[in-house]
Amino acid sequence: MSPPSVEPHLFVIVGATGDLTKRKLLPALYEMITRQGIGERCRILGVATSQLDDDTFRTQACQALQAAGFSQDDLGSWCDRSLHYQSARDGYEAVADRIQALEDEYGLPGNRVIYLALRPQIFASTIESLGKAGLNQSPGWTRLVIEKPFGRDLDSARDLNDIVHAHFAEAQIYRIDHYLGKETVQNLLVFRFANALFENSWNRDRVKHVQITVSEDEGIGTRARYYEESGALRDMVQNHLTQVFTLIAMEPPVSFEAQAIRDEKVKTLRSITKIDPNAVVFGRYTAGEMDGEQVRGYHEEEGVAADSTTETFVALRLDVDNWRWQGIPFYLRTGKRLPRRLTQIVVTFREPPVYFFADSGSSQVHSNMLVITLQPDEGFRLFFDVKAPEDPLRLETRPFHFSYREAFGELPGAYETLIFDVLTGDQTLFVRGDEVEESWRLFTPLLDGGLEIHPYEAGTWGPEAADQLALRNGDSWAVP
Length: 480
Ligand code: BG6
Description:
Layout: E1 9-14, H1 19-35, E2 42-48, H2 54-67, H3 75-82, E3 83-87, H4 92-106, E4 112-116, H5 123-132, E5 142-146, H6 154-167, E6 173-175, H7 183-193, H8 196-199, E7 207-215, H9 224-228, H10 231-249, H11 258-271, E8 280-286, E9 288-290, E10 293-295, E11 313-319, E12 329-335, E13 342-349, E14 369-375, E15 379-387, E16 395-403, H12 404-408, H13 414-424, H14 433-443, E17 453-457, H15 464-471
Parallel strand pairs: 1-2, 1-4, 2-3, 4-5, 5-6, 7-12, 8-17
Antiparallel strand pairs: 7-13, 8-11, 9-10, 11-12, 13-14, 14-15, 15-16
Helix pairs in contact: 1-2, 1-13, 2-3, 5-6, 6-14, 10-11, 10-14, 11-14
Bound molecules: 6-O-phosphono-beta-D-glucopyranose.
């Protein structure tokens, strides 16, 4: 089967002078259009509030691409050829006129992507302006891409869904969670549903617990304005960790199509029982040492209020009340300024029901563990016990090992994958409206500020209370 082809289109980036455009979108588009030869008849229109002309925008975009590591001789001519700019200050009717003019000039058939790379506070008003200017439809297709976060809680996510649905059909809407674009995250579906070996053990009879860790060594950098309004629960748990969780816990879909997969993900979210606040630990980093260097605490970061109540760490337990998972804890954990960058899933299997090696005085049997590393060092390891070749009988735990990079080399970036899917109209890796609401339904009750925030030193694996959370059931974190 040949891959779907990209039709000629206009790619409109609203928020074209922002950080996301410079760091992620332009590099992904440049890479796709020039190196992979995708959509050569693609033109890009940047829209933002600054009053810029085309040339100034092109110069800025070129600098951003250079900063992202591109140094090709034709960079300047690509920018001149592909990029255009229209200020949003002149109103969205003027944006609509410019779009029409570009489509006429380049003979484009009216296929449009409108990518909202904006502050979440202005998603709603921008979507309304797009609708009023008639930009929700076109002679070809129109697809609206909305960056995360989609809402701040259940009510605001519902309100935002209402506004989007007033102007766009769900089939036009692509809610981005860039974790779903990571090759290794997508592979979770193949790993589970193309390999009968694991699926038979993927349930409460065989699994003891599942852990998902997304740790980051970085602090909040220059993003205090965003992060102060967000915190780790909104920034990471409600979206990225929840997406990884659903792919691990969902039932097999009836087909590999977008609706079928998303239906199963929603069903899984609905099966999660109300989260017990006692099974949630919030933390915030204090000053500490990382890689031999002293780093600031969250309260000392630039732009952070001295009395800020924002959390930079969350650990929690999810319980899934369905036939497959009833009684099996899923531990989720994420934080900034942890010892290293790591996204990992650890599935710990039950011990053998009978332990007959004890009589021979051998050491204890260990649970089999499947460790799936989503980044960095993408791959998996399956740990099992073997007999060490000596007397007396002694057991040792050893891994089977698979490395993505050893097998396939460099992996494509998440934004390239997701933009390609938008361009070819595949919604599988995007979050549906009801899915985003289900996820907020789970986490909104934890947002009322009632939870204590435990301090942890930068460079450690979070507050001790998080260890207690896992230990309460006799389990412990597999990482470190
Ligand atoms: C973003 C969050 O969505 O994901 C950031 O806003 C976080 O706070 C980032 O650092 C992590 O993404 P990745 O792909 O580097 O793991």
